[in-house]
């Protein structure tokens, strides 16, 4: 049986998708005015889309200093999402979550509201305005693009998983290009978005687990 630590790892990995989605409900009250304006512009762009598709690379630095690198992709539509990263796939239809782990040939099924707030897009829509405040850092170059660098800090440090989230937003088109999440445990994860498309074809069937596609997998109900 898959250890719970792998499920927790999957949740952290998929935080990028939720970072993107969370800005659709962005409304800061204790933030840097410049940062607030940029984030609102990004929010407007994302909120005006019916669905989002992204591809990304991730570099995960663990507490012991070891680094893991991998690539992933994800689709989102309203409160539904489908994301993959390495051997992991996670599907949510807004009510149920299916966590599929290829190397173990296992599928974990749980309720969306059963302790999964950190990876629930619907809930995360208003996370930033309630729990984080922003601070504009600087304008810099990221490859051949000019980006805004904005730091997000938790208002309640004790309950937050991350002490700092750094986002890089393209100055020309107001799109998220990179995000670094710094954990309180000393770990950090940097995501770089390599592709971001809005209003993509995302039928509801994509966000529901199809058992026929996973023959021989063990289904484990939480």
How far apart the termini lie comes to 13 Å
- CATH architecture descriptor: Clam
Shape annotation: globular
CATH names the topology as outer membrane lipoprotein receptor (LolB), chain A
Query: Quick one: how many beta strands?
Result: 12
**Spans of 5+ residues with little confidence (pLDDT < 50)?**
24-29, 114-127
CATH superfamily: Lipoprotein localisation LolA/LolB/LppX
Record the strand order, biggest sheet: 7-8-9-10-11-1-2-3-4-5-6-12
* Structural classification: alpha+beta
Q: How is the main sheet built?
A: 12 strands, mixed
CATH class: Mainly Beta
**Percent of residues in helices:** 10-25%
Average of per-residue pLDDT values: 80
Order of SSEs, N→C?
HHHEEEEEEHHEEEEEE
* Number of domain modules: 1
Over the alpha carbons, how many angstroms does the gyration radius reach? 17 Å
In short:
With 222 residues, the protein is an alpha+beta fold. It contains five helices and twelve strands.
Chain-wise SSE layout:
Blueprint: H1 4-13, H2 15-22, H3 33-47, E1 52-61, E2 67-77, E3 80-85, E4 88-92, E5 96-101, E6 106-111, H4 121-124, H5 127-131, E7 132-142, E8 145-154, E9 162-170, E10 176-183, E11 188-198, E12 218-221
Parallel strand pairs: 6-12
Antiparallel strand pairs: 1-2, 1-11, 2-3, 3-4, 4-5, 5-6, 7-8, 8-9, 9-10, 10-11
Care to describe what's here?
By secondary structure, the chain is α+β, with helices and mostly antiparallel strands. It is 19% helix and 44% strand. A 12-stranded mixed beta sheet has the order 7-8-9-10-11-1-2-3-4-5-6-12. Strand 9 (162-170) and strand 10 (176-183) form a beta hairpin. The two termini are 13 Å apart.
